[in-house]
Amino acid sequence: MDSPQDLRPALGEKANDILSRLSPGEREALLVKGWLSHDARWFMAVATECGLEVTNRVNRIAAHEVGKVEARRIARALLLPHVSGIDDYLVAQEVLIGLLGPDLLDYSVSKVGDDAFQVCVRRCFAFDNATRAGVTDGFGCGIFARITGWLDALGVTYELAPSTEECLRALGQECIHTVALEPVTREAS
Fold first, then answer.
1. What single string gives the DSSP state of each residue in 112-154?
2. Averaged in consecutive runs of 10 residues, what is the pLDDT profile of the chain (189 residues)?
3. To bridge 63 with a disulfide, which of 120, 142, 155, 176 should be the other Cys (CB 3.0-4.6 Å)?
4. CA–CA separation, 108 vs 102, rounded Å?
5. Beta strand 175-181 with 158-161: parallel, antiparallel or unpaired?
6. For the whole model, what pTM was predicted?
7. Tens of pLDDT along 34-48?
8. Which tens digit of pLDDT belongs to each residue from 67-98?
């Protein structure tokens, strides 16, 4: 009995021809939109099944952990230098945001001391999506939980104020967080 012919090589060539129609920027935008679609639908499915309080808690845990993984992976891939202070961290943060979705947030960063910086978020995709879904009452922040994952992965000891328990925008406040760094004691692995 003859083995069935593997169609994958020919199909792969055709698929690659079709995919080559996309510029790198278009391909990246589609991937980010796919991630956002998954993120929003995951959030709403868990909120429907388990309630917003559980969803916020699980989302913060997951965002923090993915932040650790992606920061380590990206730092290795780009050969980022060891973070030894605030300036190094801020460059690393911009690299991470620049790769993962620079258009997802409209924000500013400013130093507020030798070892502290402030992030002011004027527009946030997560809050915008929560608003569209009608779930801002009790909505928690997953964005800064992800950033704390980056800080941990890059070996930075820090204090974040205020906490990420609640979305400041959902509370009708400005989204301004301050991160105070302590001296770096370990290298990212």
1. EETTEEEEEEEEEHHHHHHHHHT--TT----HHHHHHHHHHHT
2. 90 96 93 90 94 94 96 96 94 94 91 95 93 90 94 96 90 96 59
3. 142
4. 12
5. antiparallel
6. 0.86
7. 988 999 999 999 999
8. 999 999 999 999 999 999 999 999 999 999 99
Distance CA 189, CA 184 (A): 14
Please work out, in degrees rounded to the nearest 5, the angle formed at the alpha carbon of residue 35 by the alpha carbons of 7 and 149. Answer: 125
CATH number of 9-181: 3.30.1380
What span, in angstroms and rounded, lies between the C-alpha atoms of 115 and 156?
Answer: 11
Distances (CA, A) of 40 to 1, 127, 132, 147, 166: 49, 11, 10, 19, 17
Report residue 89 as tokens.
Answer: 């961290």
d(CA 3, CA 50): 49
Provide the terminal-to-terminal Cα distance of the chain, rounded to the nearest Å. Answer: 52
Side chain identity at 105, as an amino acid letter? L
Largest CA distance in the chain: 76
Could you give the CA distance from residue 29 to residue 60 in angstroms, rounded to a whole number?
24
**Of 31, 64, 75, 42, which is closest to residue 146 (Cα–Cα)?**
64
* Structure confidence at residue 164 (pLDDT): 81
Spans of all domains in the chain? 9-181
